[in-house]
Amino acid sequence: MISRTRCERLINFLYGEVDYDEMPRIMWLSALLCAIIGGFWLLDSLKDTVLATTVGLEYQPRAKVLSVCVTLIVVSIYNGLIDRVSKPALFYAIGFTYFILFVILGGCLAHRSFGMENTSPDPHRLLGWFTYFAIESYGSLAVALFWAFTNASIDLESAKSSYGLIVAFAQLGAIFGSTLATKASAFHISFLFVLGGSSCLLVCAMVRGYEIFFMIPAQILPAHPSENTTQQSANKIRSNVHLFDGISLVLRHGYVTSLLAISTLYEVILTVLDFEMKIIGRARYSTDERGAEQFAELMGHFGQTVNTISFIFSLAGFSYVVRRLGLSITLLVFPFLLIVGTLVTYASPGLWTLFITTALLKALTYSLNEPALEMLYVPTSEPIKFKAKAWIDVVGARSAKAAGSAINDFVQRSPYLRTNLPQYGNVPALLVSIILLAVSAHVGSRFESLVEDGHIVGEQKPNSHLYRSGGDHRGSYELITRLASSRSEDDDDAKSIFGAIARENNR
């Protein structure tokens, strides 16, 4: 009894008051995100190994640039389907599509002529490009759809205490997926691709289970209902939906434009540092199949490090930090660490310096920066939470990575600069970090003003109800509507990670 009391005190200290009746739902969602992240991190840890073996790692910057075009097409289709297809049906469509795709790619990678056994890289080997684009697009859509699926079913008070738990335990999947990638020599990369694809089926099964046990019929509808919204008006809205509504919302509202900047600029720096680490790391191993497997193991260990740190911090640190520092100060922490990281790797551009620095920064991206960024969407309208955020988190993020890759590609193309990649690549990265710090200060101040005034960006009149808990809302889509809202009150409701693409507030 004493032990239980102490445990409850610790939980309340870290997360605030916890509604234990909601724990089955919370843990199911955590397991669902765990399955998504686990499969993605397994595939993502192998992505650069496949590209290096089939195409050549020096083409990675171009692959990231081209992935923007692929992602643009995918997110346009996604935006068009959001109001027409139920969330579970959209999950099933994406899950089965990528399951088939990854199984086919796994079979192709096992082929002797154009698979991993052929260790002569050639930019004309399309398999490497297709593999890279498939993994990039899956990572963008699956996590985005999870939050769109989740963002409508937790009440405000429950969200404050549960969101950190969802994210923290989901990180166990990332650790597991990264660990599997370290076994590339034992299982072969082609088999691991099939295994990663199979996780898509597990995700579909878990979504179906959530439908059965936790959802009410009204929540399975494709529309994003709000109070006093009739089906006729919902149909009118859906009929006027345009695939590029999201980008128009970003450009129309200054606050949302600032969200685009703060949500994407850090990707430029991380892309530069990540590429520097991989170039130096790949050079340590031979160019044969064994060398490819060893490089895959290195990337697996990198994923283990990132996700272990992220798990620990999201479980025990994020909520506490935001409650103590406040959102405005929290937003400044990560840009400051980016500046420190670029200076450290500039001064000491070795593999392990880059490995540790990049791992720490990526871990804090998932467990500190992105959860804080999601709180910034609280004072925005439903279309901004869904459509604008989709463009920011998917297309915007990919475009920022493409910008970082353009820096890498420019340095790689120069015979003189190529031998000093960390030094020359880190100069523009440092400048972007300083700009990000200034943008973060501005956005934090603007957010506090919006919350204080009760103003909702994208709507005509204030909606102060977004900043306080409402009635006893239960259900599957409600789960994250209030989850997003939960992050506004007192800056202490921050509990998110991975950039939830679609925040819906139905109140």
TrEMBL record:
The chain crosses the membrane at residues 26-43, 63-82, 89-114, 126-149, 161-181, 187-207, 325-344. It is found in: Membrane. Its main location: membrane. It is a multi-pass membrane protein. Keywords: ATP-binding, Membrane, Nucleotide-binding, Transmembrane, Transmembrane helix, Transport. One of its GO terms (cellular component) is membrane. GO terms for molecular function: ATP binding; ATP:ADP antiporter activity. Belongs to the ADP/ATP translocase tlc family. PANTHER family: ADP,ATP CARRIER PROTEIN 1, PTHR31187. This is ADP,ATP carrier protein. It comes from Aureoumbra lagunensis. The lineage of its organism: Eukaryota, Sar, Stramenopiles, Ochrophyta, Pelagophyceae.
